[in-house]
Amino acid sequence: MPQIYSQKDVNKKALANARIAILGYGSQGRAHALNLKDSGYDVVVGVRKSGASFAKAKKDGLEVAEPTEAVKNADLIAFLTPDLTQKDLYAEVIGNIKQGATILFAHGFNIHFKQIKPRKDLDVVLIAPKGPGDLVRRQYQQGRGVPSLLAVFQGGKKAKEIALAYADGIGGTRGGVLTTTFAEETETDLFGEQAVLCGGATELVVKGFETLVEAGYQPEVAYYECLHELKLIVDLLHEGGMTKMHQFISETAKYGDLTRGPRIVNKNTKKEMKKVLKEIQDGKFARQWIAENKSGRKKYNKLMNADLKHKIEKVGLKLRERMPWLQEERA
Ligand code: NDP
Ligand code: MG
Ligand code: MG
């Protein structure tokens, strides 16, 4: 078992009296900024005046400035805007970042794929929460924390202590902080979201829904079966792995799982997973995604529209109207 750091391992002096600039106020940025402020840090949010985040961060009671202003005098600068905006943002603000400061990422994409080549005097670290931003915030408020990964790209012991103190400030040490490298975090994070979490899971749901609807079953029944109920299973897995899931599902479900599951996600699926991983490792995925952005995201937009226009979305919208509590948790 690798070492997993908790609150007792934090050197509180590492970030004592630090001024922290959080660039971006979206999913991760908002959670990090609010958690760090509640942990007693001097936080400034750096977002463009023209965007919606500026007023939002102000309304939340935070100090806000344009990115180029926010980074001035900051000891730590966290890049928490979308991955493909960070290269330009770095170029925009680097002139105002003081010597010896620390820059921090929540995903290693730009460093690992060499989109950002950081100035040599800077410490360069990663704290990647293994969960979406709203959970990072909610868990912090509940006295809990989302487990996080820590990596140092540039810098020594001091850089690692600063990163761990930052993870502590956002609540990560409560869930456990595991050390990794920028390469491992980047490649496993991309693989996870492509093959299992986002790509794999939604494709499984949609194909299951289509199979039932095409066979003449009611779309509403297919929705409950293939999408709504997935949460129950995921919660059980999350809480106690397959052991706990098996304790809660019926004998018949278990037999169906064990005999039919491997036919649905089979050897070919795994072969394709290996290809997807290879494309991440050799940089093909990154090159494609960067090119897609440069050429105006035509393919991306087309695929996204098709996804959002799918029948399962129309059926789901109607059925979820009856369950307003589903919308209560996520601010
Ligand atoms: P978001 O998409 O939520 O970021 C939106 C924020 O970035 C807004 O404040 C927006 O400001 C600002 N922004 C958008 N475009 C630009 C731009 N061109 N220039 C300057 N600011 C801009 O980001 P995420 O939180 O999803 O991701 C941030 C980082 O965290 C990424 O590296 C991501 O990989 C990583 N990460 C994300 C996770 C998640 O759950 N989303 C999980 C773990 C890591 P405005 O209002 O002005 O548009
Ligand atoms: Mg990711
Ligand atoms: Mg999908």
UniProtKB/TrEMBL annotation:
Q: List the catalytic activities from the record.
A: (2R)-2,3-dihydroxy-3-methylbutanoate + NADP(+) = (2S)-2-acetolactate + NADPH + H(+); (2R,3R)-2,3-dihydroxy-3-methylpentanoate + NADP(+) = (S)-2-ethyl-2-hydroxy-3-oxobutanoate + NADPH + H(+)
Instruction: Indicate the segments forming the KARI N-terminal Rossmann domain, all copies.
Output: 1-180
UniProt-recorded Gene Ontology molecular function terms: ketol-acid reductoisomerase activity
Q: Which residues bind Mg(2+) 2?
A: D189, E225, E229
Q: How is the cofactor bound?
A: Binds 2 magnesium ions per subunit.
The residues the record assigns to binding substrate are: S250
Q: A Pfam family in this protein? A: KARI_C
The EC class name is oxidoreductase
Please list the cofactors this protein needs. Mg(2+)
Q: Which UniProt keywords apply?
A: Amino-acid biosynthesis, Branched-chain amino acid biosynthesis, Magnesium, Metal-binding, NADP, Oxidoreductase
Pathway this chain belongs to: Amino-acid biosynthesis; L-valine biosynthesis; L-valine from pyruvate: step 2/4; Amino-acid biosynthesis; L-isoleucine biosynthesis; L-isoleucine from 2-oxobutanoate: step 2/4
SUPFAM superfamilies the UniProt entry points to: 6-phosphogluconate dehydrogenase C-terminal domain-like, NAD(P)-binding Rossmann-fold domains
Entry annotation: catalytic residues: H107
Q: What is its EC number?
A: 1.1.1.86
Residues that bind Mg(2+) 1? D189, E193
Write out the residues that bind NADP(+). Y25, G26, S27, Q28, R48, S53, G133
KARI C-terminal knotted domain boundaries: 181-326
- The answer, when asked if Metal-binding is one of the entry's keywords, is yes
HAMAP family named in the record: IlvC
Q: What does this protein do?
A: Involved in the biosynthesis of branched-chain amino acids (BCAA). Catalyzes an alkyl-migration followed by a ketol-acid reduction of (S)-2-acetolactate (S2AL) to yield (R)-2,3-dihydroxy-isovalerate. In the isomerase reaction, S2AL is rearranged via a Mg-dependent methyl migration to produce 3-hydroxy-3-methyl-2-ketobutyrate (HMKB). In the reductase reaction, this 2-ketoacid undergoes a metal-dependent reduction by NADPH to yield (R)-2,3-dihydroxy-isovalerate.
Of which family is this protein a member?
Belongs to the ketol-acid reductoisomerase family.
| Protein name, entry field | Ketol-acid reductoisomerase (NADP(+))
**Source organism per UniProt:** Steroidobacter gossypii
